[in-house]
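User: I'll paste a sequence; please echo it back and then give the predicted structure.

Assistant: Echoing your sequence first, then the prediction.
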Amino acid sequence: MHKSLTHFDLENAIQFVTFRTQASIEYYLENHNSQIETNTSKQQFHVDQILDNSTAGAILNGKLITLLINFFKSKDKIDYKLIAVSIMPNHIHILFQQLRPLPSIMHHIKGGSASLINKYHKQIGTLWDKSYFDKVITNEKHFQITYEYIKNNAYKANLTDAEYRFYGIYENE
């Protein structure tokens, strides 16, 4: 059974959000005969390691990377103040300051990006898993660690196109 995640929604909060392709989550559930448990950082880290190294649902590649980064930038100052985004093959990390309620932001970015991706791949159907993981940034050190994590995620995964997978306001001014 798939657990529902608890989300912390606070106006102007800086949020670190990760969401994954449905195929990557299905892979985890089918091949690891487990529930996705998110009540501890250690459990989330274990799940992330497995999913980050999986090719299941890994459709976010090539020209689509630039299209997605431009899509997330187009929502800047509308739904959120974009700080950073990393497009991984089967998931996305995004850091932003909320301008709207978190569920509304996630509805817009998951729906809009799914439409873009499905059009690009000439397919229809559900793309994103219905859940997402969010973490409110609590202080400057937490912010710096999170920003660096997003910035270096594709490099740590040894992706040959890592330099194209990240957008951050401090690198791209």
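The chain has one domain: 14-168. Residues 14-168 form a domain with the Alpha-Beta Plaits fold (CATH 3.30.70.1290).
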